[in-house]
Amino acid sequence: MRKARYGVTIAALGLAAAPAFAGEPVKIGEVAPAFTGVDSNGETVGLAQFKGKTIVLEWTNDGCPYVGKWYRSGAMQALQREAAQRGVVWLTVASSAPGGQGYVDAAKANADTKSRNADPAHVLLDPQGVIGHLYGAQTTPHIFVIRPDGALAYMGGADSIASTRVEDLQKAEPYAREALEAVVAGLPAPHPVTRPYGCTVKYSS
């Protein structure tokens, strides 16, 4: 069995490294797939309502140690707040199916947001995996950045080091941050497609 860094078994953590869905994948420079979903406060949220804004989609799983690295360190929350200050809409998406690791109902999603001191604009509940499959999200975290004109500018990992160690954040290339800052400045993402890493999204099918 192949091993991940630091002696952690890849299969044991459900680590995934790249999208593997059949069908037409999302592509950089093309219009991001439209969707409508319900957030943790019962509000209907559609991508179209944020027309003209930069949008970040962040796939999450509260039981995933790779997600935990980002939230324990405070790095994800800091990036969410910086994004909001720049007028960026941050949408956290939970696509785990009922019974799967990372599944949350509205109450649990709001409790997680509060306990993690997170600050997304919305937490979208996607237990059927509709939004996740639409984008081909495979890991948690998995980040997508959409330009104000609606085109996809970035998809991939939150950073460059596939580990669960907080200290590695200081050494990693901050792919998500670089992409966000570039798009806000009207520039292309330095690395528009990178290898996502993390726990596999626990889809229902």
Report on this structure:
The chain has 205 residues and is of the alpha+beta class. It has one domain (50-200): Glutaredoxin (3-Layer(aba) Sandwich). It contains 6 helices and 10 strands, in the order H-E-E-E-E-H-H-E-H-E-H-E-E-E-H-E. Strand 8 (142-146) and strand 9 form a beta hairpin. The model is unreliable at 1-23 (pLDDT under 50).
Please report the number of helical segments.
6
Contiguous low-pLDDT stretches (5 residues minimum) are 1-23
Q: How many β-strand runs?
A: 10
Report the helical percentage. 10-25%
CATH overall fold name: Glutaredoxin
CATH class: Alpha Beta
Q: State Rg.
A: 16 Å
Most strands sheet:
7 strands, mixed
Count up the domains.
1
Q: Which keywords apply here?
A:
single chain; 205 residues; alpha+beta
Summarize this, please?
Residues 1-23 have low confidence and may be disordered.
Write the topology of this structure.
Blueprint: H1 10-13, E1 15-16, E2 36-39, E3 44-46, E4 55-59, H2 65-73, H3 75-85, E5 89-94, H4 106-115, E6 122-125, H5 130-135, E7 139-140, E8 142-146, E9 152-156, H6 175-184, E10 198-200
Parallel strand pairs: 4-5, 5-6
Antiparallel strand pairs: 1-10, 2-3, 2-6, 4-8, 7-10, 8-9
